[in-house]
Amino acid sequence: MAARTKPGPSERDDYKTPDLGAHPARKQSAATGKGARQLAPLASHREFSPAASRDPIGLLLGQAESRVPELVPARYGRMLVSPFTYYRGAALPMAADLAGTRSSGLQVQLCGDAHLSNFGAFASPERRLVFDLNDFDETLPGPFEWDVKRLVASMAVAGRDIGLGTRKRRRVALATAAAYRSAMREFAGSSILNVWYARFDVEDALARLKSDMPKKAVRRTKAQMAKARRRDSTQALAKLTTVRGGRRRFISDPPLIVPVEELAGDLDVDAVYKFIRGLSAGYTKTLPDYRRRLAERFTLTGVARKVVGVGSVGTETWVLLMEPDDGFEPLLLQAKQAQRSALAEYAGESEYRNQGERVVAGQHLMQAVSDIFLGWRRATPPGRSSADYYIRQLRDWKYSVDIEAMNAAAMTAYGRLCGWTLARAHARSGDRSAIAAYLGGSAKFDQAVADFGETYADQAERDHAALADAIASGRVQAQTGI
Prior knowledge:
- The chain has a six-stranded antiparallel beta sheet with strand order 8-9-10-11-13-12, sandwiched between helices. Strands 2-3-5 form a three-stranded antiparallel beta sheet.
- Strand 6 (241-244) and strand 7 form a beta hairpin.
- It has 18 helices and 13 strands.
- Helix 6 packs antiparallel against helix 16 and helix 7 packs across helix 17.
- The protein has helices at 24-39, 56-64, 72-79, 83-89, 91-99, 144-161, 166-188, 192-197, 202-209, 215-230, 233-240, 269-283, 289-295, 344-347, 355-366, 408-429, 432-439, 444-473, and strands spanning 107-110, 119-123, 129-133, 140-143, 200-201, 241-244, 247-250, 257-259, 298-306, 317-324, 331-337, 375-379, 387-393.
- The chain is α+β, with helices and mostly antiparallel strands.
- The radius of gyration is 23 Å and the shape is globular.
- It has two domains: 40-229 and 404-473, no CATH class; 230-393, no CATH class.
């Protein structure tokens, strides 16, 4: 979390800490934040009224036009599983809904899809386990409360899925919103360097807190950390590849993962390899020189198409098997098509012409630490027009919480962690002093977005039912069990 500094023994005794609250820029920011309450009073964030023309299924079908046709039914099949899986895939309908609510006008770099499953643990370049946001497909600048509302509503939807009662869900939602507000106020009182240095190191946090935690919770946390460390490239190689005839190859588990050689009926395999080689070689130019030199020590030896996530299903995603020049451990990269953000229609177009660069720039801006192989590239797939991609490691100690295994206490603690993390991400790009002044010291904002979360959970359940009806009527084609 944010570092707190104290004068050291070598510092001058006559040095006085400046009154940062008196700084003109900070005073102006505070005035801006308080003035934003005229545009959107804190209590107004509880409001949500569905537009008469609202058609979430139509919006989802519109997204399908730019996706791999044979994979789109799998997306709807995954969204059909529960209201929460529907919610995970429905960033676009919610963006349309949020655009109809009052806006504070206080801009930050938004995640754009800040539901609770898009937070998790992963490895930092220093090989430490950190907790942060981990999905930026929809990232764009926009009003800070859009991310907060999507996060809090996800707690309400997921809480219903696991059987939490109304009061327990309320505590989770309030804890999440309060953690965001408190953290933003803390960051407003910290230097910009401390904000940028702040991160949640899982190992350090456990060391600090384990004396106050039940022994069972400490054991469970350590087990989760060990599990995260096992979810590395070695495990991914064992799961997704096999060695035959002395050569490592991708396994076949259609439609989840399909070696490109098995797509020969639909694609020209040689052309795909040529395209991927150009993509993997060209993307390294977007890396810093020292990381480019590392990436160039790997050679492409295998390609497979992979189905990922819920909302992302149908976007073109390739897994790249990269062999190192020293003959030791191979590297798995993921090249994922980056499309126009779901927020663009409502928050404005990105300043980046390349959608892959949009994703990467947003990720670097919001995350405390990012994958060392993260980069982007525009390339032309066989038989199609050019497309934008971003590339990263497939797996590096990546771990997401098991929602179904959570109880009310665990979800409350997790909500606080997500709220703090989102505030830290927003404080890096937005006017943290203005947002803190807008939020204030009372729980008015917390109460309002908790109300919004429950109201929107009702809407998510109705939308999930509408998707089921659309599938039953034949308007939507779904493939389940994938």
